[in-house]
Amino acid sequence: MSLALQHALRCAGVWLCLLLVGAAAQAHKPSDSYLGLDLHGSRIDGQWDIALRDLDHAVGLDANGDGQITWGELRARHGDIAAYALARLDVLADDQPCTATAGEQQVDDHTDGAYTVLRFTLQCPLTPARLTLRYRLFGDLDPLHRGLLRLAGPGGTRSAVLDPQVATASFELGAPDRLAQFLEFLRDGVWHIWIGFDHILFLLSLLLPAVLKRRGRDWLPEERLRYALIDVAKIVTSFTLAHSITLTLATLGVVSLPSALVESAIALSVVLAALNNLFPLFQGRRWLVAFGFGLIHGFGFASVLAELGLPQDALLAALVAFNLGVELGQLAIVAVFLPLAFALRHTRLYRRVVLQAGSWVIVALAAVWFVERAFSVRILSP
């Protein structure tokens, strides 16, 4: 075996290990908060929905440590919650700071659990022509946290996705910058697939055999890249078509499924896709598996957009941009995977370690995800 090939195999092994370790740490839906701002001259009315599980990690809500957050425990910490959150949000009207005053707090259920609903008022020194937000919630605790912003004011409704990497957003309060909003949701679609380890492992489980052909119980290397490309194209197209359908239906509110059911089904899809590499459950029909379970994955993708409360015109643009971003992120994964897999397809290490042993690891990991999500227990998650 050449030194170059040995180096490529080591890189592939390290990459797969890092992916699986990261997947173990991120078995659940990414941390999101939902921030709504309504402008009324120099006054801004705000509502901030923040997951109780994230606040418990940050400020400690479960006083008796029994694993349940009661209304009494939450009410006792309302002042601390408001102080913690509002200290991590700066709003400037034409570069002049606005003053925040906390209001009442309630509890609401989102698709992934209970959220505190913090209402507050921002008083600005003047009616702004430009509004700037600096968002730092959970930035020191969770690098994958996102704040999903809806801003209603002169010129219509705007939206943005804020995170520790993109923590500042500015808005000219005339006509909204549609291109900037489109690019923002395009970026978030790419990022969503890249941090969605369950989606990535499902796709990789289907792609791993694309450079091989099954003969009885053995895997033999595919001799022509063209056949591997055709197989990959069928899988990716089927997955794309399926999740685009349900992403659209869920985002527009036509179909809605419980988050626990969707996340459990996604974990189960990863188990079955990886098992198919070990036992011929769906021999020659992996594209059908990609389509069938892709319908479920689409509901998972929709979680970002469904709860933003965007008006219809903004929602359609966000849907197109986000879905396009998911596709670009998916194609980037395929562009990295396929040349490397095709170069290594003749080696026993690819067939025995990457395909077979890797598939067993994916089965075990996804089975743990399924138990966690279906029965609300913690095994891998902190």
Keywords:
2 domains; single chain; six-stranded mixed sheet; 12 helices; four-stranded antiparallel sheet; 382 residues; alpha+beta
Fold and architecture overview:
With 382 residues, this protein is α+β, with helices and mostly antiparallel strands. It folds into 2 domains: 3-28 and 196-375, no CATH class; 32-187, no CATH class. It has helices at 3-25, 52-59, 71-76, 78-86, 178-195, 197-207, 225-251, 259-275, 286-301, 303-306, 312-344, 348-375; strands at residues 32-40, 43-51, 89-93, 96-97, 99-110, 113-123, 130-135, 146-153, 156-162, 168-172, 212-215, 218-221. It has a 6-stranded mixed β-sheet with strand order 5-6-2-1-8-9. A 4-stranded antiparallel β-sheet has the order 4-3-7-10, with no helix packed on it. Residues 11-15 and 17-28 have low confidence and may be disordered.
Determine the mean pLDDT.
87
**C-alpha-based Rg, rounded:** 23 Å
Question: From N to C, what is the helix and strand string?
Answer: HEEHHHEEEEEEEEHHEEHHHHHH
Strand segment tally: 12
Classify the beta-strand content into a percent band.
Answer: 15-25%
Report the major sheet: 6 strands, mixed
Multimeric state of these chains? single chain
